[in-house]
Amino acid sequence: MLDLLFRALIGGLGVASVAGPLGAFVVWRRMAYFGDTLAHSALLGVALGLLFEINLNLAIIVLCVGLAAVLVTLQKKHIIATDTLLGILAHSSLSLGLVAVSFLDDVRIDLMAYLFGDLLAISQLDVYWIYAGGLAVIALLVIFWKPLLAVTVNEELAKVEGYPVESIRLLLMLLVALVIAVAMKIVGVLLITSLMIIPAATARKLSKTPVQMAFIASVIGCLAVCGGLWSSYRWDTPTGPSVVVCAALLFLIAYTLPFKRLGER
Amino acid sequence: MSKCLVEFDKIGISFDGRALLDSINMTINEGEIVTLIGPNGSGKSTLIRTLLGLQTATTGSVIRHESLRIGYMPQKLHVDPTLPLTVKHFLALVRGVNKKAIEPTLDKLGIAHLLNSQVHVLSGGETQRVLLARALLNRPNLLVLDEPVQGVDVNGQVELYNLIEGIRDELGCGVLMVSHDLHLVMAKTDTVVCINQHVCCSGTPQHVTGHPAYQALFGVPGADESIAIYAHQHDHVHDEHGDILEQDDHTHCHH
Lengths: 265, 255
Hints:
Chain B: This is Zinc transport system ATP-binding protein. The complex is a heterodimer of chains A (265) and B (255). With 265 residues, chain A is mainly α. Chain A has twelve helices and no strands. Chain B has 255 residues and is α/β, with parallel strands linked by helices. Chain B folds into two domains: 1-69 and 142-148 and 155-217, Rossmann fold, CATH 3.40.50; 78-139, no CATH class. The N and C termini of chain B lie far apart (41 Å).
């Protein structure tokens, strides 16, 4: 049992550490709904992965990136408002995923685990995936931090100064897709975005610079994972939702108590 | 002869068959301050965006000198309130910036004390200076300023224009700025190009303000409340019939 908890903790901390910094970008760029759409489509990725017997993580990443590309193309055509477009894609891809899963007669999958996550069910292999994907995300964030931030602050200035704006935007979508793929095991497709947004939003209250905010978001995400796991162990609550509730509590605390920003007197 | 940094060659831009710009020709030389002027919706910003590569021209082309390096100052800065960002960090985002140059640049613009301020709390004038600092840190030989004095009071506007002129004198760079009136910018400008979809008229400020096309758009200079600002232009006196009298020097201004 303790072995199981330990593995869950290691996996959860890995996911929270990468979801934090990326969540900061999602918040800054107002991509919350976009993240949600990609996350919802991840279930379709799972179904397709099982159907064609390819690695599920890979299937999710490919599907998310594909969907992101479709989204950007449709956005440029200005046929309908972006939020409507996101709503259509999010829910139709989720439904499509649910329908596709129902066709998989010979494979028994735990739908609830995919929708809401089941941290206690992660395997050693899952942990490896989380850390491989997580390290890739962190490495890309560190290497491309300045261009990513420059494009986020002001795209036009960045473009005039010669940053490859389109590629950077694509990179950010790829990173979001990667995080969704590795985080799905922990909190499920319906709750992934919350693990990115809530710690980042909480960190905003406490930080003065972008780097601070990204770092604090990681720490808060980790605290939420610990708290969620603990309550899950103590009261037998579902782990995914417990982690999210914990994050929401931390958010409430940060915004109701008179905290000062780091470095402020 | 200073080198020509940018030449617009018959630039035309249209959306859904509606022409925004039609056959615009103009040039900007090194060391020259060019002011682009025109009413709202005349296509000033569109023309600037074409130069910056943010907008593609439907017809014609922009010929850029191979040495061209643009420092761009947008109209305003919107940074999402969820993004904590100090002036220092904002300026450090310039591509390939020399971080040692940040403080001296702020010093030169008189805003050294803002180094650690959050960009969200700056006043209009402070924001404009920070944006100007960012443009300068790109080590430009052409400054492109889109309505640089927007949201700044009259005194602040005069100071900003002085600053821009000082930068031109110091760096010898070209300056292209957009303005929707000429009153304050007049004295600091070498060339004025007045556009309204097409080039209405261009030349020295004195020439343009006397041009019928300019007066049709902006009225006769001195005919409105801005007369005080123009007083220094009246370095001549009129007789009862409105004819200009000969004078030996410019110091006697009898009104």
